């Protein structure tokens, strides 16, 4: 069973917002750190933000501050990442990645979602 | 913020051994950087091979191992298989120390990916 399943591809116009979903199954994901990472076409991995609702520990990388909001819906075991003010250079595949250890392991990325492609174009 | 550097590309013969490294611009990589290694094949999400420098997940093939070597994090592949041809990414953590499942830190915490190593099995 795949523990993290993400929402489908999105096409957005510049200036719009996108909200990517990451549904967990088989474990209490709110006890673990959830990271959001993106990968532009042909490029490396770029960390965007992390959150641990149980520990009330959320951090957004400086580059994305003011544009990224992380939320969780415990009734559906789903984490969300919203990116606002989209630009063409936000075109990328967005991944969620979760730790599998409870506690303070803020850096843990043990299992990954399949990725959500976001295309920003006018 | 630190810059993390990996070899851009390496080649290994089938059945051979190769070591990939991960260096930090801030100095020697230590256990407190909690290095991770990920394998990513084209069009797929990353999968986690190594965490906390040397630890393996249940799904990590035994031919992969992690270590610290010469002030860098290292991933060694012993007995390369054709299916090991992929991009390998390392991740280092900065600013936080986890001890007895508790986190201590002062100042900023962040994680940084290396640029990735394209490994060819040929």
Secondary-structure blueprint:
The complex is a heterodimer of chains A (122) and B (122).
Chain A: E1 4-6, E2 10-12, E3 18-24, E4 34-39, E5 46-52, E6 57-60, E7 68-73, E8 78-83, E9 92-98, E10 111-112, E11 116-120
Parallel strand pairs in A: 2-11
Antiparallel strand pairs in A: 1-3, 3-8, 4-5, 4-9, 5-6, 7-8, 9-10, 9-11
Chain B: E1 4-6, E2 9-12, E3 17-24, E4 36-40, E5 47-51, E6 55-56, E7 64-69, E8 72-78, E9 86-99, E10 102-113, E11 117-121
Parallel strand pairs in B: 2-11
Antiparallel strand pairs in B: 1-3, 3-8, 4-5, 4-9, 5-6, 7-8, 9-10, 9-11
In helices, the fraction of residues of chain A equals under 10%
Helix amount of chain B = under 10%
- Rg of chain B from C-alpha positions? 14 Å
- What would you call the shape of chain B? globular
Mean pLDDT of chain B: 94
* Beta-strand fraction estimate of chain B: over 45%
SSE string of chain A, helices as H and strands as E: EEEEEEEEEEE
Instruction: Say how many strands of chain A there are.
Output: 11
**What structural class do you assign from the helix and strand content of chain A?**
mainly beta
**Count of helical regions of chain B:** 0
Distance between the termini of chain B: 36 Å
Strand content of chain A: over 45%
Which chain pair shows the most residues in contact?
Answer: A-B, 25 and 25 residues
Distance between the termini of chain A: 38 Å
Overview of the molecule:
The complex is a heterodimer of chains A (122) and B (122). Chain A has 122 residues and is mainly β. The model of chain A has no long low-confidence stretch (mean pLDDT 93). In chain A, 39% of the residues are buried. In chain A, the strands form 2 sheets. In chain A, strands 2, 4, 5, 6, 9, 10 and 11 form a 7-stranded mixed β-sheet that branches. In chain A, strand 7 (68-73) and strand 8 form a beta hairpin. Chain A is globular and about 40 Å long. Chain A is built from no helices and 11 strands. Chain A starts with a strand and ends with a strand. Chain A has strands at 4-6, 10-12, 18-24, 34-39, 46-52, 57-60, 68-73, 78-83, 92-98, 111-112, 116-120. By secondary structure, chain B is mainly β. In chain B, 0% of the residues lie in helices and 58% in strands. Chain B contains no helices and 11 strands. In chain B, strands 2, 4, 5, 6, 9, 10 and 11 form a 7-stranded mixed β-sheet that branches. In chain B, strands 1-3-8-7 form a 4-stranded antiparallel β-sheet, with no helix packed on it. Chain B is globular. Chain A binds chain B through residues 35, 37, 44-47, 50, 59, 61, 95, 97, 102-115, and chain B through 34, 36, 38, 45-48, 51, 57, 89, 91, 93, 96, 98, 101-103, 109-116.
